Amino acid sequence: MDRAAKFAIFLLLAFLPHSAPAADKPPQRTAREALKPFNDLIGSWRAVGSPEGNPLTGRKVTWQETIRWEWQFKDNDAWLK
Q1: Domain count within the chain
Q2: Confidence of residue 5 (pLDDT cuts 50, 70, 90)
Q3: Does some domain include residue 74?
Q4: Separation between Cα atoms, residue 52 and residue 55, nearest integer Å
Q5: Residues 28-62: pLDDT tens digits?
Q6: Long-range pairs, 28-37, Cβ under 8 A, ≥24
Q7: 36 is a domain residue
């Protein structure tokens, strides 16, 4: 392979990644769209807790907890509360 062919291949490879059209980029998602997979977590949750230890000791120490998750939105920002 002569120098001209090597140079042509070099130029092709050097500028090939930059020649991709801008339409191939994924569109920017809003915070609301990005958080949609987590909608199943929103709402009230009830749970029962117990301390770590040996369950054979016979002591039954438990407590109940209630947890509530909701979305908060402000402008283009979103978070869980």
Answers
A1: 1
A2: confident
A3: yes
A4: 8
A5: 878 778 888 888 888 998 988 877 766 666 667 78
A6: 30/76, 31/73, 31/76, 31/77, 31/78, 32/73, 32/78, 35/71, 35/78
A7: no
